[in-house]
Structures
1.
Amino acid sequence: MKPLGDLGMRSRITILMSGSVVLVTVGFITDWWWLIGIGAWMLIAAGLIEMIYRP
């Protein structure tokens, strides 16, 4: 059984990745570069958390 903190970290990574997909998609559709940039940084943050926090 995984500790409860692990489930919280997994949900944060999932939320960051889902949010980044939404922001990048909306940014491409509306041609707003700042949304694409925020989505890219969210994806980078999710990747770093995933690499650093290995359960």
2.
Amino acid sequence: MELRIQTHLFFALWACMLFLWGCGTYQVDDDTEATESPGPYTMDVALSNATLFTSLYPLQLYLFDSKGAIVWNEEVQAQTEWPVLSQPTGEYVLTVISGLSSEDYLPPMSLNAKQLLTFSQGNCADTPLVIGKNVVKLKNDVKISMNLSYAVAALYLSFGGVPDDAIAVEARISPVSSGITLEGNWNNDGQFASVPCQKVRGIWKAGPVYVFPSESSQTHLSLNVKTASGETVYGYFFSYPLEAGKPYRFVSTGDGEVSLEGNGQIEGWTPEVSEEFPFENMTPEEDWEHPKPDVPDGDGNSGGEEEENGGNHNETDNDTDVMVAEVLPESETIWGPFFVWKVEPLSSGEVEATLVSPRQWLLKKAEALSVCEAYEVDGISGWRTFTTAEAKAFRDQYDDTIESLNEMLQENGVDTFNKYDCRYLCNDFNSTFCFYNTKILDSGETVDYALRLVKKVRVEKAK
């Protein structure tokens, strides 16, 4: 009898343990599911270094999802008016920007993290752009401490020694970026900033003006000096790139004068860079490169020139692709992502179009070849430089209308051309041309050149 009771007790205890063990497993699973909430969760934002910046408000606030789509956009007038951001679980990019109320900058037509914010004119502004960015992995309510920084470099320009008969002086600084994405990345397109100078007691001055930096190993300053008899472009190189958050004071002197004044630490900026040099050290543009000796060849061309239809394998039509499209391209229009320079009809339903790449680069000759070989856009590869004949024709066509062309290109998101500040590679990288004179010069190995690619395509109208 006692053995039977013990046996029943053993099985009762074992069954109870199994029951409790089973109940524990179920409860753990239930608790885990309860903690996996989709939200929404709030983001409490604080600006950690707002006191370093004057006139910070209004701020533009952008919140993008992991695909770059906008999920929140609001203008904040003061710290006390910050909205309560609330979103479901996910990864977001939060960007705040100060300076947009100045109208020196143009927001993109559509709000996306990759869209570009650009300058209203001249690739420079009178108001600095301040930006802050945080990547937020939202799993619960969070507090965000956002650090702000300048997205621009500041330029202070002062030019003495300029010829007395100058009636206008414009400074051009390159390379700079023409825009910055709404998530805070420069587009590094190697453009130039155009800065008009004012004459003050015999010195031509400008600044502070603000520019977006662009990747480079050096900075080029040029002065376009206009007189009653014409204009001359002078150039000077600095062996470093521009950096965001740093002021630069570029000063030229004449007759032994010293013009540096009041330079030092500016609150919120890193220590400034000051450069002083005699104006006579600025090199006239015809000496920037090394043209061939100006000795006529048998056809009457100078050594720096090439025959328009010879000596350049790019003159062949081997680069022509065949495409089919609903609408045939037309000359001097935007077709897809491309600027169509010219169109030659082949039949009632077929044309040959010369396309110009939407991108432009500023780089050395050796780098340009690899960029050209790798470049592909909208499924089209096999791009090349302008031939010598094309370079002359393009320059002559747009010499006086390059500004209006650039306006059209900029409106359509295509990189603009530099009229004054650089030379373009042509003739299979062996020569260069520009829009400020008619010379075709040899390309050098150490100079930064603009690269703009072209491509011929044969387009058939879809039936």
3.
Amino acid sequence: MRLVAYRSSDVSLLTGYRLPGELLGVRPAGWPDAAEPHRIADPWARRDERLYVVTDLAYVRYTDIDWASGRARLEIGPRERAQHTARDGAGGEHTEDLLAELVEAAVTHGRRVLNLRRLHGWVTPAAGPPLALLRAAGFAWEAVVPRGCRYAGDEVEREMWGLVADG
């Protein structure tokens, strides 16, 4: 799986049913279809951000990049159809494997191409993200922020997950 530079023709990947800023922004469990989809901004104005895509599958955004210390916050936003097959098993795709490859590609790109030593991101446990995929890629739980975001009408905790490269 290869990350390529974002182009304006990839704009459809930037909108989806996900919580803002999530490390792995899959559609939350029980998220209503009537809810407003979240859209990330086009990446043209910020120097501390890089946006890539896996063509027709997902966006990968590195934001709050600190080039001196080699760290960044990571957001991965898979396209909606990939998420549905993971949840209900339909479609004949191996989406769990696909999401695992996507996370691994984002980590590899961050380390090898952008030369980042530390990647971190937000995880909202109440939304039911696939934590095993993050653990398999080397991410670990680091901290909890009580009432860190709103989900399903309530304030819920948000966790910081991160990884540090081995050299």
4.
Amino acid sequence: MPGPAPRLAALLWALMIAFAPAAPARASPVGTADGPGDVALAIGVTTAAATGTGLWLRSRYRRSDAEADATDHGGDR
């Protein structure tokens, strides 16, 4: 069991959604987001998120060295 972190996160999300102020929907344009700075920011944020996710997955599912050597059937032996 990983501990109380998943339950705490679910509780915080539920409280945030329950007590978020409801704003009326708007259909008017609020501006443009296709300038070079906005595109660069979107690319940078997406790259950082993908890199962080990849590193987290790599650390979480890393095999031990003994297991990796036992299952490694490389052609250079």
